[in-house]
Amino acid sequence: MPALKPRNPHRNAPEYADRVNLIKKIKIGKEWRFAPVVPEANGRLKDKVRVNGQVEVHLEGSYFIEWWVSGRRFRETTTREDAIECARHKTVELRAIRAGLIASPEPQPEAEAKTLIGDAIDDYLKYVKMQRKSRTFLTYRYTLDVLLRASYKRKYVEDATRQDAIDFMTYCYEQGLGARTVYDKVVTVLQLFKRHGREKLLEKGDWPSYVDTIRPIYEPEELTAMFKVATEDEADMLKFILGSGFRDQEIRYVEYLDLDSNHDLVRVTAKKEWDFTPKNWEERVVPLPHVLVERLKKRKERKKARPHDLIFGNTRGNPDSEMDMVVKRVAQRAGLNCGRCVTEHGNKCAEGPYCMNFFLHKFRHTFATNHLRDGVDIRTVQAWLGHRDIKSTMVYLKGIRSKDAAHKVNSGELATLVA
Question: In degrees rounded to 5, what are phi and psi of residue 414?
Answer without folding.
Answer: -65, -35
